[in-house]
Amino acid sequence: MKWLNKGHEFDVYAGPLVKNFNEKQNKFYIFGAGILGEELKSVIEKTDCFAGFIDNDYRKQISGVGGAKVISLQEYLDRDKDGLVIIAADIKNIPVITEQLNEAGLKREKDFYEYTEFMKDIFPALALYANDQLYIELAQICLTERCSLKCKKCAHACYAVNVNNKDMSIEIAKESADYFFDYVDIIKEFVLIGGEPFLYQDLNEIIEYVGGKYREKIMIFSITTNGTIMPDQRTLDLCKKYNVTIRISDYSVAVKSLAEKYERLQEKLEKNQIAYTMSDKDAQWMDYGFESVDRSENEEVLIQTFDKCKTP
To answer: Which residue of 165, 188, 191, 272 pairs with 140 in a disulfide if CB–CB is 3.0 to 4.6 A?
Structure first.
């Protein structure tokens, strides 16, 4: 979609949100002092609007969590509901907490939001319009389109890229990061991706550059890999230094021999105390909808192509 009112598309949408937020004294309470709640806390703290946790566990109310105060719902009500409540809980507990809030006289979209809706639709607008901070959920730098696998209909068309193809230069990779972080104040996840990023000869340099200059703006700094290439020790040391998460895409259903490689990679990551995730090997594959894209098409055709893209 082409911008028609650049920089002001969300003025009408954000206005009522900011008004309500101001009435709530520009504060957020997180209902749920667990893993999800702590993750959300790390984001909200960068806006200086975090007021504390709400949790039904009296033990957490006594001890606090991660140095943050934990209060009961009743204490929040006694404070005259002085902040927006964000439900950060397991999906099976959300209806229970929602019912608890409703019974206390709290209203959805006025007094509270659920985590997913809040992070995708509400927080970005409030961060920008109320705090003058630009928040983005996800961004990636594609360092190389070379790959050690040749998956049919790869979303990046890596099957058609020669192994000797030229990668993004380290200078452009750094300039891309600089340009991005000149504008973005908070990002939930910043990803170095490919192709296969462990093929990128300057990977260590870009990890050091992004980690050294911008790590405080990034909640999750990650590298997405197909797990076929073992990172060297210098790469592992930098991943540990800058708390980089390795996200392994599991293709072992299609390529049986990869299972053993995944085991070795996981062992090495664990030995070096590096966080990692494995994708669900039985996850449903998505066809992005195009056999090819002709980038020489005129702008109107390219806009139509972009708008039809089935990327979630």
So the answer is: 191
Q: What is the pTM of this model?
A: 0.86
DSSP assignments along the chain, one per residue: ---SSTT-TTHHHHHHHHHHHHHTTT-EEEE--SHHHHHHHHHHGGGT-EEEEE-S-HHHHHH-BTTB-EE-HHHHHHTTS-SEEEE-S-TTTHHHHHHHHHHTT--BTTTEEEHHHIIIIIHHHHHHHHH---EEEEEEEE-----S---TT-TT-GGGS-TTPPPPPHHHHHHHHHHHHHH-SEEEEEEEESS-GGG-TTHHHHHHHHHHHHGGGEEEEEEEE-S-SPPPHHHHHHHHHTTEEEEE---TTT-TTHHHHHHHHHHHHHHTT--EEE--TTPPP---S-S---TTS-HHHHHHHHHH----
What residues in the chain have per-residue pLDDT under 70?
1-2, 289-290, 292-293, 295, 310-312
